[in-house]
Amino acid sequence: xxxxDRISExxxxxxxxxxxxKTVGFVPTMGAFHAGHRSLMHAARxxxxxxxxxxFVNPLQFGVSEDLDRYPRDLEGDQxxxxxxxxxxLFAPSTAEMYPEQTITAVHVAALTDGLCGRSxxxxxxGVATVVTKLFSIVGPCTAYFGKKxxxxxxxxxxxxxxxxxxxxxxxxxxxxxRDGLAMSSRNExxxxxxxxxxxxxxxxxxxxxxxxxxxxxxxxAIQHLVVASLASDxxxxxxxxxxxxxDDLQTVEEIEGxxxxxxxxxxxxxxxxxxxxxxxxxxxxxxxxxxxIESEAPCAAR
Length: 303
Ligand code: AMP
Prior knowledge:
- The mean pLDDT is about 95.
- The longest helix has 22 residues.
- The chain has nine helices and twelve strands.
- The N and C termini lie far apart (about 40 Å).
- Strand 9 and strand 10 form a beta hairpin.
- The protein is α/β, with parallel strands linked by helices.
- It has a six-stranded parallel β-sheet with strand order 1-4-3-2-5-6, sandwiched between helices. A four-stranded antiparallel β-sheet has the order 8-9-10-11. The protein has a two-stranded parallel sheet with strand order 7-12.
């Protein structure tokens, strides 16, 4: 595994790999690796001859009052994880390498960014779409792996690739959760022991909605209300949004049919967390996808 911090060096390395007929699997990240990141690296390793992981905390996607300065950073630890996952290249550019001058070009994906995190984090997805476009332009033809934990981000990037004919095939991977259900996140590092306990309510709220769906509830408002009430039951949680939307265009639904996303964002102390599940209603029965539990990789059950 080599760590590269120069765009030109990464291009030379990847051109050489492609000349040898190698296919490229690419995992864009902001570092502070956990089992969610590892699952993406593993998926890329399983299907590709050459695996590149980018590690860049992108200032463009943080709002002025957000946590750019306190975002967890651990290059040495991340290099160890990348070695363990048999990654070929860790691309860790500086901010000056990625943005040598003030950027006056941005990529904006409309409609899909109106709700959910797009509403509460104005400009966030422009920052994401812009940096991912740059990364795809640097890496070149590849299969890129993203987590469904950031479901809206995945939808935005898929659509951006399709609209702009970017040479990346986008693959969405399941949410990886701790053994008790908490979705893995680099920001979990900020939680105190007590806050860690409170944060579990996010998963429990989704799991209770999953049970209601299994029992036949099909009204989106009822599901939304159930999740809101679960979050409100814990005074340590400040809910930001709970939305029930179609999973393809992220538009609000009234009835749950086809594939639907139940997504939430909430603050626990100073830490903003997101979580979601997808539901597919087919011939009357609802199949809920909450992701997989760490280690066992068993699908998460409602409980
Ligand atoms: P980040 O470093 O938080 O920007 O995340 C990099 C990639 O890892 C994104 O595609 C995320 O969706 C994905 N990811 C983060 N957390 C998880 C998780 N718990 N399960 C699966 N993928 C995740």
